[in-house]
Protein 1
Amino acid sequence: MSPLPLQDSSLYRQQAFINGCWVDARSQETIEVINPSTAEVIARVPAMNEQDTRDAIQAAETVRLPFAATSAAERAAMLEKWHQLILDNTEDLAMLMTAEQGKSLEEARGEVRYGASFVKWFAEEARRIYGETLPAPTRDRRILVLKQPVGIAAAITPWNFPIAMITRKCAPAIAAGCPVIVKPSDLTPLSALALAELASRAGIPAGVLQVVTGLPQGIGGELTRNPLVRKLSFTGSTRVGQLLMRQCADSVKRLSFELGGNAPFIVFDDADIELAIAGVLVSKFRNGGQTCVCANRILVQRGIYDQFAARLVEETKKLKVGDGFAAGTQMGPLINQAAVEKVNRHIDDALSQGARVLTGGIAAANGNFVQPTVLADVTASMLIANEETFGPVAPLFCFDDEQQAIDLANATPFGLAAYFFTENLRRSWRVAEKLEFGMVGLNTGSVSLEIAPFGGIKLSGIGREGAKAGIEEYLEMKSFHIGGLD
C-alpha cells in the first residue's frame, strides 16, 4: 500500500517496469526513496545493474520493428490515451512528486499538466512526420526523402522535474516509432513508475516504454555501450553529459543533451520594474531555484539598481517555505544536504568577497530548507557568478550600459537560457541577437513551452526538445533514389 492517500494506490509502484512486467532486480538489491522534507523513507525500488538493463534493451529490440511498422494514427491514439490518463490522475501524480521531490503540491500539479502537454503535442506531431520529393537532374530519376525511426532510444532524466523531463523525451520517441528505456533519477523514481503504469493502461505495447531504476553507473554504462541503443537523450549536469558523450562515441549514437546553465537576467533602466520583479520571482524561485533555466545572475542597470533591489527584497520576503504538502507553501526543500551545502558555499564565498545579504542568507536548521536569499554587490569573480547555484539565491550585479550587460551575460561557457527586460523596441532586437544562448526571454521569466524548441548551445548541450524539432531527434533521414523510369 502507498504511504500516501492516493485515490489509485496502484500508481504507487516499487518495482521496475521491463517488457510489460513489474520486476525486481536480479540481485534483489534495492535503493531507498527519501522525502526531502521529512527525511523519511517512502519507498524502496530495485537497484538494477547491467544485466537488468540488457534485459530491457533486448525487450525493446524484440518490439522495435513491429512498433516501427505501426501507423502514425495508431501511435497518436496511444499517446492521446496516455495524455488523458495523466490528466485524470493529476492529483495522485502530484502527491507522488511532492513526496519524493519536495516541491509544493500546487507546483507539482502544474508540472503534471506541463508534462501532459508534451504527450498531447507529440500525439499530434506523430501525424506530421513528412518526407520530401526532390526535383531530379534527369527525366528518368525520382528522389524521395523518407523519415524513419532511429531505433531504440534511452532517456536519462533528472530529479528536478521527474514527470516533465520524461514525457518531453518519451512522447516524441513513441510518436516517431521508437521503443524507449527510461532511467529516472534514483532520487525520484516513483513518478516515472506511475507514468509507466498509465502508459500500459493506454495500450502502449510491452517493451515500448520501460523504466529501469537504480544507481547510474551500471545502467548508464550499459545504455551507452550497447550498440542496440541508437539514441540517448540526457538532461543533467555538463560534467555527466561529457562523460556520457565519451561513452557513446564508440557506437556513434544520436545524442540530444540538455546540460547545465548560468542564465543571465538583465533589467535595463527603461524596463517595467514590476514586470521584471514578477519575472525574477518565476525564474529564480520556481522549484526552489532548482531549474536549469533559472536566473543565476541578475544584472540590473545602475540607475534603477537600488529601487529594483528594494522591491525584490519586499517580494522575496513574502515567499512561504515549508513542506510541500503544507497549505500555502510556495517553496519546498532542496533535494538533499549536498544541495544545501552548495548554496551555503556560494553565499559564504560571495560574502567573503564583499557581497551583502539583503534578505535570507542562512539555511534553516531543520533539514533541507533554505530561505530565499537576495545578495547585493555581487561581482564576476565570485563562485555564484561562474557556477550554477541550483538554489534560491538571487545575486544582484550592477552594470552601466547595454554593451557591458551583453558582455557580462555572455561571459560564461554555458548557453542555455537568458532573459532581459526593456521597453525599447530597438534594444529588444539588438540584445536578443547578441545574447549567446539557445533560448531568450524578453519581458518574461519563462521560456518553457511544449510548442517551442528547448535547448542550449556551448556547454549547455546539443539538440532540442519540444516543438517540431523534438520529434526530429528520433528520426533518421533516408534518401531514396529511383532510376530507369523512362
Note: DSSP finds 15 helices and 22 strands in the chain.
Protein 2
Amino acid sequence: MTRPETASVIEALDRDGYVIVPDVLAGDEVAGIRAGLQTLLAATPTGRDDFEGHRTRRIYAIFAKTRLLDGPATHPLVLSVLDHYLYDYQLSAPTGIEIGPGEVAQPLHPDDGVYPIPRPHRQLVINVMWPLDAFTEANGATRIVPGSHRWGDERPEPGAPVISAEMPAGSALIYLGTLWHGGGANRTDRPRLGVVMHYAAAWLRPQENHLLAVPRDVVRGLPERLQELLGYNICPPFIGYVDGRHPRRLLR
C-alpha cells in the first residue's frame, strides 16, 4: 500500500519530473556525514573532463569507503518511490559530489541516457540528491528542466526554462532518470557538497561495478537490504544468479 507521503511525491514526479522533500535528514546526521566525507575528499582529485567538472571532486565506490550513507541509501521514503517506479532495482552510481568555487555549469543530460533505449520509455532510473550544504543558485544547485521527463528525442534548446533546485541541507531532491538536468556553476568562494544516489532497474547493468568496488568482507557486514542494492540479489525470474544459486550465498 502506498504511503500518503509517497503518493504526493509520486504525483509531483509524474507532473514535473522532480520533487524536493524538506527535512528528511536531521541536522546532526547531515553534519556527521559532511564531516566524515571531508577526509575522503582530501584524497580525491578533481574531475577529468567537462562532465565530471575540472573543479569538482567526486567520491566513487562510496559504500567501500564509509558507512555514513547506508541510512540515506535505504531510507523508507526513497525505497517506496523506487518500489512504485522500478519494482526490482539496485544502486547504479552513488557519488559524493563537491562542486568547487569557479566551477562552470555541467552539460544538461538525462541520467538514463547511458542506456541505448529509445525514448519515451518506462522509468529505468530514479535519483536522489542529498544536499549536505544548502544548495543555492549561486553555489551550483542542480539545474532542472521541468517537464522534460516527458520528452521523446527532444533536447533543451537555448533559452529553455531551467530552474535551480535550491534547498536546505537535509532535504532530498528526488528526480526521474528521464529528466534533463545538470550541476550548476559555483560562483561563490566556498564548495558545495551533496551525495547523489542513482538507482536503476535490476535488469540493467549499473554504472559502477559494486561487486568489484566494494570488498566482499565489507558487504558481509552490511544490512541485507543494502547488500541487495549492491547487486547481491536476483531480478526475477533469475537474472543475476551465480553458479545457479542466489548471489547472497557468496557472503556466507
Note: Residues 159 and 173 are 24 Å apart (CA to CA).
Protein 3
Amino acid sequence: MRSPARSFRLGAALAAGALALTASPALAGTADPAGTAAHASRDTVRFATFNASLNRSTEGQLAADLATGGNAQARTVAEIIQRSRPDVLLVNEFDHDPDGTAAALFQRNYLSVGQGGAAPIEYPYRYTAPSNTGVPSGFDLNNDGRTVTEPGQPGYGDDALGFGEFPGQYGMVVFSRYPIDESAVRTFRDFRWADMPGALLPTDPATGEPFYDEDERAVLRLSSKSHWDLPVRIGRTTVHLLVSHPTPPSFDGPEQRNVRRNHDEIRFWSDYVRPGAGGYIYDDEGGRGGLRPGERFVIAGDLNSDPRDGNGEPGAIGQLLDHPRVNAAAPPSSEGAAEAAASQGGANTSHLGDPAQDTADFADEPGPGNLRVDYVLPSRQLRTAGGGVFWPASADPLSRLTGEYPFPSSDHRLVWLDVRAR
C-alpha cells in the first residue's frame, strides 16, 4: 500500500490572488541585475527546480528552524525564490515530515514575508510525500559486514533504502500557483530496482557475483528518494511535473553501486515518457505503464549528472537530453557560473562542458568542480520562452544570496525555464 502523501491547498481567494502575481515584477520599480524578473506574459509558466540544502542532521530540526522567521539560511533561500518567482517549483533536500509541517512553515514564515526587499510570493498548492531516504532496509547494503538498523548509529545511512540518517532526510516538496490534480498523482517510491529490465545492478569486481544478493534485490528500491508524476492544471491544459532526486554517482566503491543507480533513476523517466518503453513500470497503488502518448510534461530535479564532466555513468543524463520527446535545445545559463569556474580553477580547468551552464558549486580540489546537475526539461510540444540559472556575477548585488563556500543558501542554484503551456 502506498504511504499516504500530503497535498495541501489554500482557499480559492488566495489562489486567485497568487495567480495574479504571475505577471508581477520581482521588484516593483527596482532594477533586476540578476535578470530573473517574473515573466510579463500570462501565456508562459515558469517552472523551476532548486536543491535548497534545507536538510538537517536530526529529525524534526527543519520544522523547528522554520517555526519562526529568523533562520538566516531559510531567509536567503526564500529571497532567491522571491526574486526568481517561479510558478511551479520543486525544492530538493527539504526534509519530509508526515504532516507537511516544515513546508507549511516555510510558506508562512519565509515565502509569504518579503525578504531583503523582495516581494512575498504565495503558493496556494503544495505537495510532499514520503522518501526512501533513511528508511532501514534490514540488510547490509554497503557490504561492510554490518547491518545497521538504528538511526544515529554509524553506517545507518549506507544500509538504508536511500541514504539518510533518519526517514525523510533529503526529501522534496513542490510549491505551485496552479492546482495539482491530487486524484491523478502517481508516486513510484516502492518500485524495485531489480524490476527494471536490463537494470545496471552492480557486481562485485573481485568475484563477478552480484553485489546485492537475492534477498537484498527483493527489497531494494530504485528511487533513492522517490519519483513523482504530479499533473498540474494550467487552465484547460495539464502538464505532468515529473520530479526526482537521483543519488549522487559517488560515495561508493569499485562496484559503483551509486553510479549505476543514478543512471537507472534517470533512465526511469526516459522510459516513462517514451511510448511503449514503460510497460514494466508500476506505481505505488499498483497502476502500470508509463505516461500516455501525447501528454505534456516537464522533468525537473537535481539529477546529479553532468553531460560531459563529473563521475557519472557516461550517457546517463543523455538519456533525457537526447530523448526524442524532450525539448533540451536551450540550456539555462548564467554569468556567475562562468565567472566562478574561471576564478576557482582546480578541476574546472579540465572540464569539457560549457561552464556557463553549471548549476552547482562543488569542491574544486580534488574535484569534481562545478557541474550542470539541476534540470528543467519540457516535452517537445512545450515551446520555451527563456530560462536561466540564479547565479549572479560577483559584481551583482544579488551575489550575496549565493556567495562562496560556506554558502549562505546552497551549493546548488535555482534553475528556471519559461514554457508556453496553454
Note: Confidence is low (pLDDT under 50) at residues 1-35.
Protein 4
Amino acid sequence: MNTKSKITILGISFLFLAFSGEVNAQMTKEKTVMVGGAAMYPSKNIIENAVNSKDHKTLVAAVKAAGLVETLQGSGPFTVLAPTDAAFAKLPKGTVETLVKPENKEMLTQILTYHVLPGKLSAKEIWAAVKAGNGKSMMKTVEGEELTFWTKGKDLYVKDAKGNSAKVTIADVNQSNGVIHVIDTVLMP
C-alpha cells in the first residue's frame, strides 16, 4: 500500500470517528427520560424507544401482532398511552395470549389504537384541558371512541369506556413523532 492510500484511509477513518463522536455527543445532549431501565431519546420514534423499555415488552409484542409497527414509526404525531407489562398482567389470565392470535388481530388493533390520541399532547396540555372542562376532559382516540382525563391531587388519570381508570405514572416521554405517557392499566374501548 502506498503512502497516498494510507493517508486516504487514515483520513476516512478520522472522519468516521469524528462523525460518530459527533452523533454520540448529540445523543448525550438530548434530554432523556428513563422508562423501563432505558433512556428514551426524543430524536427516536415511538417504536425505536419502546423496544428498549423492559417494562413494555408486552405492548411491543402486541403492536407487532397487530401490524402497527410501521404506523407508529410514521411521522404522526401521536400521543401514546403506554401500558406497562404490569398493567397487562392485571388483565384476566389468558387475555393477552388470546388477543395476539392472528384471528384476533382486529380486536387487538381496536384496543391498541384506543391508547393513541392524534397529535402530540403534553401532560401540561391535557391538564389544562381538564381544568378548562371543570375537572374532566373527553378526548377522541385514533380508534374513534373517547377517553376521559381527570386529575386527583398532582396525578393525571384517564378513564376508559368501561369505567376503568389508569394513572399516568411517567408523563411527557418525548419522541420524534409524538409523546408517550406511561400508564398503569390497560384501557378497554
Note: Residues 1-30 form one domain.
